[in-house]
Amino acid sequence: MGSASSMLTQYDIEEVQEHCNKLFSQQEIVSLYQRFCQLDRNAKGFISADEFLSVPEFAMNPLSQRLLKMVDGLNFKDFVAFLSTFSAKASLQQKIELIFKVYDSDCNGKVTFNDIIEVLKDLTGSFMSDKQREVYHLSQSVMEQVYWAET
Amino acid sequence: MANAPDNKLTSSSSELDLDRPNLEDYLPSGSMQEPRGKLRLDCGLVDWWTVCRRDLLDISPTLTEAAGAIVDDSFTRCFKSNPPEPWNWNVYLFPLWCLGVVIRYGILFPTRVLVLTLGWIIFLSSFIPVHFLLKGNDKLRKKLERCLVELICSFFVASWTGVVKYHGPRPSRRPKQVFVANHTSMIDFIILEQMTAFAVIMQKHPGWVGLLQSTILESVGCIWFNRTEAKDREIVARKLRDHVQGADNNPLLIFPEGTCVNNHYTVMFKKGAFELGCTVCPIAIKYNKIFVDAFWNSKKQSFTMHLLQLMTSWAVVCDVWYLEPQTLKPGETPIEFAERVRDIISLRAGLKKVPWDGYLKYSRPSPKHREQKQQSFADSVLRRLEEK
Questions:
Q1: In this complex, is the C-beta atom of B1 within 8 Å of any C-beta atom belonging to chain A?
Q2: How much is the ipTM here?
Q3: Are residues A31 and B21, on separate chains, in Cβ contact within 8 Å?
Q4: Is the dihedral of CA B211, B214, B216, B220 positive or negative?
Q5: What is the distance between the alpha carbons of residues B254 and B274, in angstroms, rounded to a whole number?
Q6: Does the predicted TM-score (pTM) go above 0.90?
Q7: Is the pLDDT of residue B310 over 80?
Q8: How close is the nearest chain B Cα to the Cα of A89, in Å?
């Protein structure tokens, strides 16, 4: 558990709350901080990829590598901001942004046909092969490339 | 092999302590709902999203699971040692606490060290002659060594002011039986050993513990393994089988969890102990946290520090239950047998079961687990595809 130096002050909590647009209550931020300190073993101020992967439930998740890219090395404020997307109170816009980023693995602002195939490969492993292409011809007919306009 | 529980979010909320906020409040399972009505955005992102959801690309449950694992997961909970609540926070409790510290460190601790030293002197002065002089008379030597090991363990327990309540019939020396127990700390072994001289299977430790292991514990017939060596498992399995067959070997004690857990949960039992073809006698151990937290977090403390912590607390209070011996039922696999015994032990000691392999503390999950998830996702996608 966290050592004595990892106490949050009221200012800290409010700052973090502002940063995540008040999607978490103060009690939730305190709990998240305890969790952050638990995962961050040598109190570096961020959680390394290795420490995330030491949670077996996370490591087993097929999309863990993609999420890891987004969450690796974040400090506590950004960690909370990242998790706030999963809150029930988060806007649909925010959620869709996250999903877009998960798909857009080469971070070029576009989700192409290949990006979608890649995600499907992650999710299904070796259990779906040529069928993948079949499925995508179906959905391909409905949309082409999707662009994300920077806000 | 471990399967994540299907309904992870609801099961974790029922296990949460009252003062921890409900996981469901900030990660409800249905957090990525179908948008009500269409929001027009410039890039048509929402249309894409709606299409994707309908057309099999719904990754939101997987993402939510991953985020849920980041926020709280049942595996790390097994190894969390809760720091004791400070109760000395006001003017009149603080002097009382100081008095307690003075008594514990100034009076109890030196007395205990004295008792332990005395015990070692008596033990060594009897063990060494017995071990070397009675080399010829094996039966007598073993009997005496057994009594002496039980004696030194009693001294250890006395040195922490151990108050151990044993329930159930004492273990008997019979061939073809193994004892299994849940594991919280190495002191589990000492507490059980003071009642019956078990032969235990342990991880070989460095330092003075290793020295004790190779000299004294060798005489009771202990078996060593090395967690990090892959081939080791077969060698150990063979040693176990040989030991159990031997008629006058000490009864074998195994901790099937394979690692120390914090005495609130049990992790999955390794099947090694359950495929030896003999009766399994479960032992449940529960420590009373009010006096001291006996969980040995080997990553945070060395064993020496752990012992010192025990010796400077008021007492180590625990209950030991010797439970009814179990045998493999017809048609039951060793893994099912292991789970059944784990059920019995967890029920008796009031521990919650967790579907994780304790060795995940030291290594990453094998690709098998991810493949299971991938397969089920692929199956559901293919199924929906067929429905079209």
A1: no
A2: 0.83
A3: yes
A4: positive
A5: 10
A6: no
A7: yes
A8: 8
